[in-house]
Specification:
The longest helix is centred in the N-terminal third of the chain and has 17 residues, at about 55-70. This protein has helices at about 30-40, 55-70, 95-105, 110-115, 120-130, 160, 275-280; strands spanning about 1-5, 5-10, 20, 45, 130-135, 140-145, 170-175, 185, 200, 205-210, 215-220, 225-230, 235-240, 250-255, 260-265, 300. The chain has one domain (about 10-285): q2cbj1_9rhob like domain (Jelly Rolls, Sandwich). The strands form five sheets. Strands 4, 5, 6, 7, 12 and 14 form a six-stranded antiparallel β-sheet that branches. Strands 3-11-8-13 form a four-stranded mixed β-sheet, with no helix packed on it. A two-stranded antiparallel sheet has the order 1-2. By secondary structure, it is of the alpha+beta class. Strand 9 (about 200) and strand 10 form a beta hairpin. It binds 2-oxoglutaric acid. 2-oxoglutaric acid binds near residues 141 and 157.
Length: about 300
Amino acid sequence: MKFILGKEQPMAMVDMKQIHALEDATDLLRNPYELRQRAAEHGCLFFRRLLDPARVLAVRRQVLEVCREHGWLAPGTDNMDGIANSGISVFEGDDPRWIAFYDDVQRIRDFHALALDPAIIHMLEVLFGEPVLAHSRNICRLVFPDTNTHSTPPHQDNYFIGGSDETWTAWIPLGDCPEELGGLAVNRGSHRSGMLETTEGVGPGGRQVPVEDASAWVGGDYARGDVIILHSLTIHQGRDNLSAGRLRLSADYRYQPRSHPVREDSLQPHMNWLTWEQLYARWDEDDPVKHYWRDWDLDVVKREPR
Ligand SMILES: O=C(O)CCC(=O)C(=O)O
């Protein structure tokens, strides 16, 4: 709990006593053994400018055009600056304004194609030592300023996705994301604690895990093209957007070794508000990104009710 504007407010993000700088692992791509060593030790890997910044900005441009259409950008500003319309704050969830916005974002072809970028797939092939299955449930995050009660609480992705523990999340800022804009903080080495009990949390996902006070986090200024990946048991959280009026945009995609089991919902559109047919409706008929996984021999497992 913290006091904001004199009112006691539940906080989503937990305080971080130690935050270490992001350590670029690009050089390790030439040495698979060392790359896997660091992955096994830290449960996360950071790659400076792994993606072509122009490709990332092309997705940013399209997401911000949708924001403009929904009236979420300040009038008279350049879309690419991502300056929020000060009279509005919409949170990820079942708010009809969010659903309408999110459906439009999910229809953006380049948003899904970015998840299959050859640089990301190559990096994961080095890590896994086998072909990669990119989950098709791609998630876009948009965080309004001054919404600390709705930052993403500390959690392990495995709780939400099931399937193989060896699933890794790639978190990608859709533009420069300096610390004050929020972004992802990762609890280094926490994957070694195994699956943790969850409790109710505030913010996206609505569940959180306990975090040791003295534990070591990594985070900092992210730039366009950067990618951080984290193991499905590595604790991570979204940092508060403390910027003066700007939106935080990011994408999070998931990947696993193709031979491992995958839970059926990881191959469905995020939130299932749209079907694949509805999502692909405006794409080219024979677009290779459509259903790219359908001909692969996958071990698809059912989602067990909790
Ligand atoms: O971007 C965020 O706030 C959270 C992202 C996240 O939880 C994830 O990438 O798994």
